[in-house]
Write a structure and sequence with these properties.
heterodimer; A: alpha/beta; GMP Synthetase, Chain A, domain 3; 14 helices; B: mainly alpha; Non-ribosomal Peptide Synthetase Peptidyl Carrier Protein, Chain A; 51% helix; Acyl-CoA synthetase (AMP-forming)/AMP-acid ligase II (chain A)
Chain lengths: 499, 83
């Protein structure tokens, strides 16, 4: 399929070759390749009838379900750009992104409509397609679009056209939209398939949110590109995952470290699930402890490999034939990696520096942020912000972060974004947020606050305040109120003393 | 009675606004993430001596959903009453 230029055309090709094969399972639903391709076509025509023009951005706020897959491919077939948003985001976060990306069309689960009531009132030009069956004034029903029969949609899409705009938390306090082209997605997906040796007869379990780039690549694009199949679970429930692996004979599984930890705990109980169908497991999103790898491999003999994939440039993944615990593997074929010092000079093998990536996997830039783009892509290399070392065989070991970031169960949280939210609270004078160790999630945000003079408040108030404005995983789990925050000689908050 | 027992468990695990009631949303109002829910449900299974299936777990959106599941499962003659 080397001459196919767009992601959705790869679905069409797979549907021509394997029309009757089931591509995805969800609850009692099973969808064949030909059915998916036809539905994608109907929906693409519906989006075009709705006025979607080439290169316009469409926001997708859906949990894990087949409609995410349908709409993702339909937007691409209509030559639009998908802006997948975490359904856990709060109204403020969604509002900011809709404005930043100039989104005029939003596709959302009907259950989430009340949450965006204010956004709708302020953005009168926003068109909404809701998934959920009920009819509502000013809202187009997804189910009606799906039923409309359409002629084959044939909008021209080039490899260089934008496919997705992936919002990542930003150090400055606001999320940034990383722009990836069809060429980026095609290159990365095939490179992952090759490295992981994914086959047509593989069946994977999709449990990580599809709004996350890691899940889009490993759970949706990889099987569709290779003619495989996948089962979607709406959310992570350890026993449900184990039950699905056993009953659906799942052969590869991708999760974040916190999930592997929870699965091992669930497996240590009285349950006895048959895991023999699993031949490969992948972990990403956060560092995986060597203890988990050893325990998993010892108990099941299943290779558990680690990958490193910032949304901006999925770069490395372990090879299950040659795992080095603690390493995220060598660079994908066709991708160059190096580590550099603070002057961007390349460091020798084994030395720790900032991890940089170059190749067809690297994003096109950040939306509306030319300075941040130039900074991140300086010298023709994407600077990941990760601190890493590379061994003599080219295996990469991520050892820390150059940028201030907290990894909560595989989700990036920038303290600056949480601190910004706390600063908006009328009683807060100063705020500092750090990562606090958490057994299940790796880390959770912990806030230290100084109140304005003569103010008094309970820590709980600030947790609830954050929860009104930020996705739950970004909110502090603990708040400590102090008389002052420790500072270094230049007056900057010294977070090391808070840890 | 069911709600009071759920409240005892929820209060140990979550920080939330207002009074816990049938309309309280597990994710939006309690701030639960996907790792919190199995912990809460395990405690509820122990408290009421019941087993909640995976299918039922996926359907829990509110405390009311949870109360209905518990009500259907507790043995006859052990009527806790919803409140």
């Amino acid at each position: 399929m080397g001459n196919v230029k767009s992601v959705d055309r790869i679905l069409s090709k797979t549907a021509q070759i394997l029309p009757d094969k089931t591509v995805m399972y969800y609850e009692n639903e099973s969808i064949s390749y030909s059915q998916l391709d036809k539905e994608v076509n109907n929906l693409a025509q519906g989006l075009m009838d709705f006025g979607l023009k080439p290169n316009e951005k469409v926001a997708l706020v859906l949990g894990n379900c087949p409609n995410f897959v349908r709409m993702y491919f339909a937007i691409l077939r209509a030559a639009g750009t998908v802006v997948p948003l975490n359904p856990l985001y709060k109204a403020d976060e969604i509002h900011y992104i809709l404005n930043d990306a100039k989104v005029k069309l939003l596709i959302i689960d009907q259950e989430l409509l009340p949450m965006i009531r204010e956004v709708r009132a302020e953005k009168s030009d926003l068109n909404i397609i809701a998934i959920g069956g009920r009819k509502e004034e000013g809202i187009v029903s997804f189910e009606e679009l799906l039923k409309k029969e359409a002629e084959p949609v044939d909008r021209n899409v080039e490899e260089s056209d934008l496919a997705v705009c992936l919002y990542t938390s930003g150090t400055s306090g606001r999320p940034k939209g990383a722009l990836l082209s069809h060429g980026n997605l095609i290159f990365i997906t095939y490179a992952l398939i090759t490295r992981m040796d994914i086959r047509e007869d593989d069946h994977n379990l999709c449990v990580i949110p599809l709004s996350h780039a890691f899940s889009q690549f490993t759970n949706m694009l990889m099987p569709i590109f290779i003619g495989g199949s996948f089962t979607i679970l709406p959310r992570f429930i350890p026993n449900a995952v184990l039950s699905e692996i056993a009953s659906k004979k799942i052969s590869y599984f991708c999760a974040v470290p916190a999930m592997y930890s929870a699965l091992l705990a669930a497996l240590s109980q009285e349950h006895n699930y048959d895991m023999s169908s699993l031949r490969i497991c992948l972990s990403g999103g956060a560092p995986l402890s060597v203890e988990i790898i050893k325990e998993f491999t010892k108990r099941y003999g299943i290779p558990l490999v680690e990958g490193s994939g910032p949304s901006e440039a999925v770069a490395c993944i372990g090879s299950y034939q040659a795992i080095k615990p603690g390493s995220v593997g060598p660079a994908l074929d066709g991708v160059n990696v190096k580590v550099v010092n603070d002057h961007d000079q390349e460091l020798p093998q084994g030395e720790i520096g900032e991890f940089c990536v170059q190749g067809p996997n690297v994003m096109q830039g950040y939306l509306n942020l030319p300075e941040a783009t130039a900074e991140a892509l300086r010298g023709g290399w994407f600077h990941t912000g990760d601190l890493a070392k590379i061994d003599e065989e080219g295996y990469v070991y991520i050892v820390g972060r150059k940028k201030d970031m907290i990894l909560v169960g595989g989700m990036n949280v920038y303290p600056g974004e949480v601190e910004q939210c706390l600063f908006n609270h009328p009683q807060v004078l100063e705020a500092a947020v750090i990562g606090s160790p958490d057994k299940e999630r790796g880390e959770v945000p912990k806030a230290f606050i100084v109140l304005k003079r003569q103010e008094s408040a309970e820590p709980k108030e600030f947790i609830l305040y954050c929860r009104r404005h930020l996705a739950n995983y970004k909110c502090p789990r603990q708040v400590v109120i102090l008389a002052s925050l420790p500072k270094n000689p230049t007056g900057k908050i010294d977070k090391k003393q808070l840890a | 009675m069911i709600l009071a027992k759920i409240k005892k468990i929820v209060d140990q695990q979550f920080i939330y606004e207002g009074e816990l009631n049938e309309r309280t949303k597990v994710i939006d109002d309690l701030g639960a993430d996907s790792l919190d829910i199995p912990v809460m449900v395990n405690a509820i299974e122990d408290e009421f001596a019941i087993a909640i299936s995976n299918e039922e777990l996926f359907k829990i959106r509110t405390i009311g959903d949870l109360m209905n599941i518990i009500q259907d499962k507790i043995p006859e003659g052990m009527n806790y009453g919803k409140c």
